[in-house]
Structure formats: C-alpha cells, structure tokens
Automatic annotation (TrEMBL), chain A:
Location of this chain's protein in the cell: Cell membrane
Family assignment from sequence similarity: Belongs to the binding-protein-dependent transport system permease family.
The name this protein goes by in its record: Multiple sugar transport system permease protein
Species of provenance: Alkaliphilus peptidifermentans DSM 18978
Chain ranges passing through the membrane: 25-55, 89-110, 122-142, 170-194, 215-240, 282-306
A GO cellular-component term linked to this record: plasma membrane
Membrane topology: Multi-pass membrane protein
Record Pfam families: BPD_transp_1 (PF00528)
GO terms classed as biological process: transmembrane transport
UniProtKB/TrEMBL annotation, chain B:
A GO cellular component entry from the record: plasma membrane
Topological type in the membrane: Multi-pass membrane protein
InterPro entries (alphabetical): MetI-like, MetI-like_sf
Record-stated family: Belongs to the binding-protein-dependent transport system permease family.
PANTHER family: ABC TRANSPORTER PERMEASE PROTEIN MG189-RELATED-RELATED, ABC TRANSPORTER PERMEASE PROTEIN YESQ-RELATED
Protein name: Multiple sugar transport system permease protein
Keywords of the record: Cell membrane, Membrane, Sugar transport, Transmembrane, Transmembrane helix, Transport
Length: 312, 276
C-alpha cells in the first residue's frame, strides 16, 4: 500500500513537470470569483469612496471637486463630528475593559472541573447568535421607564433605578449592558487559551509554594496575553462600529447622548445625502481604527508574552 | 488540581449559576411577556408567569404586519447567499490551498487584509454602485455579492483543506481527472463539515443583518424580518409590547435552532480561527 502511494507520487511528479506550464491558468480560474468580488465589492468601492471624499457629491445634482474641504469641515466646523467622536470613545472606554474582564472571568470559572460545563458554555454563547434588532427589542423592554423589570429588581434592594433610555446620563450605560450580553465568542476564545496552558506549570509553581493568586499572575495571565491582545483588538473595532443598537434602541438620543460616530456617517450619507462628506467621515474612522489597532500592536511587545517557538 | 476543595466548589458554582441566571433572564422575560395580557404586561409588581397563556398574541402580532412577506424575503436571501458562499468560497479556497501559482501568497495576504476594512467605508460607494445598476430596493445587493466569496469563509475552508492529505486527489489525477472534476467529486464531499459550518455562519449573519436591508431596501414589500421588526416598533403608540416580544421571540428561534444544530462545529470553528 505504502509503496503504491510512493510510486503514485513519483508518477505525479513526472506528470506535473509535463503539464505544469500548459495548465498554469487553471488556478486563476478557481480564485476568479474572489478576484472579481475583490475588484467590484471591495477595492473598487474603497478607491471610489476615497475619491468621493474630495468631492461635494449630493445623491442627485452636480458633483464638484472641492479638495480637502470635506476633511477641513469635519475637523473645524462640524460640532456633531466631535460630539459623536466623544460618544464613541466614551462607549469604547466603558465597554471594552468591562467586556474583556467579564469574558475572562467567565472563562476562568469555566476552566475548572465543573459539571454541566457545556450547558454553561451554551448559555453564555447563545445571546451572540441572535440579531442586534432582537437584542435591542429585548433590552428596550427591560429598560422601559414605566414597566421595566430592571428597575423593579433594583427597587427590591432599595435602589431607585434611573430612566435608562430616557436620561442622557444613563442611555449609554444601558447600551453597554445590552452589548455585554453578547459575550460568547470572547469567552470561548479565552477558554481555549486557558486550556492550552500546560498543567505542569501549575504543578511546578505549587511545589515552589506559589499560592492561587501568585499562580494566576505569574502563569495564567502572562500565558493568555496573546488571546487578550486578539480580543482587545476585535472589541475595539466592534465598539467603534457600533450602530445597530443605537439606531434601534435610542436613535441616537436622548439629547444625542448615544449619537455614535458610525451614526454620524450613516446620517450624513443616508439622511442628508451628502455622499462626499460622509465618505470623508468614513475614511477618518478607517484611519482612526487602523491607528488604534497599530498602537495596540506596538504596545503588545511590552505586555504580550509569546512562548518562544516549539509551541504548536 | 483535580479535586476541588468544598469552599472553592461552592464559590465557582454559585458564580456560574449567578451569571447563567443573568444571561438567561432576558430570554425568560421576553418569552413570558409575549404571552401576557395587556394588564399583566403593565402590572406592578411584575407578573413573572402569565396566569393565562395568550397564544393569540403571536397570531395577532404576526398578521398585523406583512410579516409572512418579510419572512419569505429573509428566507430567499438566506438560501441565495448560502448557495453563493458555498459554491464561490469552496472554489477559491481550493485554488489557494492546492495550487502553486504566481502571486498566490500576496493575493492571500490581500484577502486576509480585506477583512479589516470597516463596512462603513464601503457601504456608501456600494450604495452608489447598486443605485447606478438599478438594484436599490431589490434583493440583489443582499444576495449577489455572496456569489463572489467572503474572505473569512474562504480562509476557514482553506485552513480546513490544508489539513487534508492530498493522496486521493493525486490518485484521481493519475486516473486522468481534471482539476474541476477533482473539485466536484473529491474536494466537495471531503470538506462537507466545513461547508456546513460556513452555511450556518452565513445563515446567522444574513438572518440577523439589519444595516444591509436598511440601506438597500425602502419598499415595505421587500423588507426582511429584522427590518420589519425594527419598523414595527416605530408604528403608532398603541402597539402592545406583547406583540413586539412575540415577533422578537419568533425571530430568535431559527438562529437558536441553527446553533444547537451545529453547536460543536461552531465552538470548534471559533476556537480554531479565533473569529466569529
């Protein structure tokens, strides 16, 4: 059998050398769908949007080249630009650390010999598979000012709950809570990273007299920093693109307290039909996300621990 | 390590149960609310379990809007895109995984890099493009792009293919099969589990999508279920919350079933590739 395979491989090598040149277009035929899609739906639109950002481009009417005016307008005279940027940063600053902290805690809890582990995993993951619109509806009802169950539960412990979605101070927290519900993916990634830590490390540390807390900070935490880095980047990107929940739950209100930057882009394009200005806004966001990602990556050499090769 | 002490055990289980309750509660509240009468819905303190289960809430909510039409549109999009992704992504993944050609690695890096482009940047030119083609307010912009592959699914399939030995294909080649026959007869059956997984991922993404339909559709008759639900809430003041909760419950059922159907693959898929 094995000899057969070796003989076959030998024959294929011979065959390949004969037909390699003749059939060289074949691989391109297979990847053609993606190349076409890349041109028409990715790089084409990307270049198109960069060009549009230098034009006054209403959806109907004349198109006019205006140089950097759209960018200048965003940075100098558009109050909502800074406001929406502020809302987005505020959301990200509250949401990202909480998200990672909770996901990590859940993963640490699950990384024990517990009964019903797969049931718990399912429970934590399930909210991630349902639609943003459905999530919004569910939380709108929970946060309802008159009949919201969350304020009833708070009243049981003598707390008077705020008007979650109607109070500019609280609406963004309501949105953070609703977003935190979709933890599942991060929990699974952390759990996989935790499982990869060799048991011997803990045993050796125990013998050296390290306590549970010492083991966590000396072994667990350093070894899962790559997973933290990955989750951090994904969470930052998703926080900056937050749109569905804001559109459905609050429409940016009250008093624009949940008017996210992505909503500003959306409104400029599809409410005010200023396609050129909206494109400039979108590019500012793109560059911002790339910069943040790059900064996180740069910083990672200081805090992410990679086991020198040998690890699969 | 194996045997946990009692205090630790109690600590871990109580936290797990606490968090599980928090995570499950919104479902419980949604589903029970969907069955409540108007007075129970607005009762204070809240009624946890409806005294009478009002199944007619579902019927009334569903028929108060053309939700059947929306459902049909959603199903058309799900089927159309899933077929598109399965065919196009498998072709492209096979091309990248099994052939050596000029520029392959560069192209693959470009493919991975395109996953980083935020949708906000391309949505505006795409809207203009589809507007130019006369596709706005049709289902085309929501279906046709999927026939050109999606980087993440291509990446998943290619990783899967890299893990499969080439012996069978090589034997078939000796028997005179051409690359396309190999793709159809050998590769497709071999990568079936991975195809099921991208089918499930795609179904979830498309079924749940709100922004695509919101931007590309404006005629009521073309709406998808998510879009229909979102605008349902905006209609008038006297829409009862029970009706919204009923439709919300219905909308959550297919993704939940899809999840249970492919739970193991989804969990493995996420942990291997690291991305949803």
């Amino acid at each position: 059998m094995k000899a057969n395979v070796i003989r076959l491989k030998h024959m294929i090598n011979l065959k390949k050398s004969n037909s390699g040149v003749k059939k060289s277009y074949v691989p391109y035929l297979f990847i053609l769908p993606w190349i076409a899609g890349f041109l028409f739906f990715t790089i084409g639109p990307l270049i198109f949007s960069l060009i549009m950002s230098f034009f006054d481009w209403p959806i109907v009417g004349d198109v006019k080249f205006i140089g950097f005016s759209n960018y200048i307008r965003a940075f100098t005279s558009d109050k909502m630009f800074y406001h929406s940027m502020g809302v987005t940063f505020k959301f990200a600053l509250i949401f990202v650390p909480l998200y990672i902290l909770i996901a990590l805690s859940l993963a640490l809890l699950l990384n024990n010999e517990v009964k019903g582990k797969s049931a718990f995993k399912t429970i934590f993951y399930l909210p991630s598979v349902i639609s943003g619109v459905a999530v919004s509806m569910i939380w709108i009802w929970i946060f309802d000012v008159n009949y919201g169950v969350i304020n009833y539960l708070l009243s049981l412990v003598n707390i008077t709950g705020p008007n979650w979605l109607g109070d500019p101070k609280w609406a963004i927290f309501a949105m953070v809570i609703a977003s935190l519900w979709g933890q599942g993916t991060m929990v699974l990634i952390f759990l996989a990273a935790l499982k990869d830590i060799p048991k011997e490390y803990y045993e050796a540390a125990s013998i050296d007299g390290a306590g549970a807390i010492g083991r966590f900070f000396k072994i667990t935490l350093p070894l899962i920093t790559p997973a933290i880095l990955f989750n951090l980047i994904m969470t930052i990107i998703s926080a900056f693109q937050q749109l569905t929940l804001a559109l459905v739950m609050t429409k940016g209100g009250p008093s624009n307290s949940t008017y996210f930057y992505a909503m500003h882009v959306y409104n400029n394009a599809f409410k005010h039909f200023e396609m050129g200005y909206a494109s400039a806004n979108a590019w500012i966001m793109f560059v911002l996300i790339l910069t943040l990602t790059l900064l996180v990556f740069k910083s990672s050499s200081a805090w992410v621990y990679y086991e020198s090769d040998g690890k699969k | 390590m194996n045997k946990m002490s009692w205090p630790k055990k109690i600590f871990i289980y109580s936290f797990l149960v606490f968090f599980s309750t928090l995570f499950l509660f919104p479902y419980f509240w949604t589903i029970t609310s969907a069955f409540k009468s108007a007075s129970e819905l607005n009762a204070y303190p809240p009624v946890w379990i409806p005294t009478k289960w009002h199944f007619e809430n579902f019927y009334n909510a569903w028929t108060s809007q053309p939700f059947t039409r929306y459902l049909i549109n959603s199903v058309i999009i799900v089927i159309g895109t899933t077929m598109g992704q399965v065919v196009s992504c498998s072709l492209v993944a096979y091309g990248f995984a099994r052939f050596k050609f000029k520029g392959r690695d560069t192209l693959f890096i470009i493919l991975l890099a395109t996953m980083m482009i935020p949708w906000d940047v391309t949505m505006i030119p795409l809207y203009m493009q589809f507007n130019f083609l006369g596709w706005i307010n049709t289902l085309k912009p929501l279906i046709i792009p999927s026939w050109f592959g999606s980087p993440f699914y291509i990446f998943m399939l290619r990783q899967f293919l890299m893990g499969i030995p080439k012996d069978i294909e090589e034997a078939a080649m000796i028997d005179g099969a051409n690359p396309f026959q190999i793709y159809l007869r050998i590769i497709m059956p071999l990568i079936k589990p991975a195809l099921v997984l991208i089918g499930v991922f795609n179904t979830l993404a498309v079924w749940n999508d709100y922004l695509g339909p919101l931007i590309f559709l404006n005629d009521n008759a073309k709406y998808t279920l998510t879009l229909g639900l979102a605008q349902f809430k905006g209609i008038g003041g006297d829409i009862k919350m029970a009706a919204i909760m009923a439709v919300t419950t219905i909308i959550c059922i297919p993704p939940t079933i899809a999840f249970f159907f492919a739970q193991k693959q989804i969990v493995d898929g996420i942990t291997q590739t690291g991305i949803k």
